[in-house]
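S.,

Sequence below, as promised.
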Amino acid sequence: MEKIKLYTRFERFWHWTQMALVLLLILTGFEIHGNFSLFGFENAVRLHNSSAWSFMGLAVISILFMLFSHQYVNFIPTTKKLKEQVQYYLLGIFRKDPHPTTKSFYNKLNPLQRLIYGGLLILIFPVQIITGLVYMYYHYPENPVDVAGLQTAALTHTLGAFLVVAFILVHMYMTTTGHSLTSNVKAMITGFEKEEHKEKIEEKA
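The prediction came back faster than expected:
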């Protein structure tokens, strides 16, 4: 096993800040829907809106970082070893088989993770942002969005929230599938992770 650098300081900051914002959005969002009372309705609305703007600002900064640092390659979908990765999660992990993919600075996500993260970044998050903005700035009758359109936006936003919750639950489980139960979490704190061998040429696709 060899310790290698995987995550930069910004990536770790981005990850934990994004996690905090998403959790705050989920808590305040479901409180606004009346599922429970924690912050109070008015405070929940203010927190939800400010967290949403912070999330969007962080998203812009992270996109620029990914482009200029070439880290966006980690999110490019690939079918290479996809079948092996699915088989590993379904069966191999319980037999303690070795991981079918090796991590490196430009290959941090396995093919299945790339597809899931791609769907989250390209589909779910944009839909949440658009429907959230529609709901945030709807003021009847000045706003051209009619009541039916508002209801559709609200329902779509809520469905997206449930999908994000599902992703978080799966993500929490996936953090335990590293070389040890806590290795993935430690890597996102320290930036370093142990791999069986370091690739001589880091994959960029």
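The chain has one domain: 2-195.

Coffee later?
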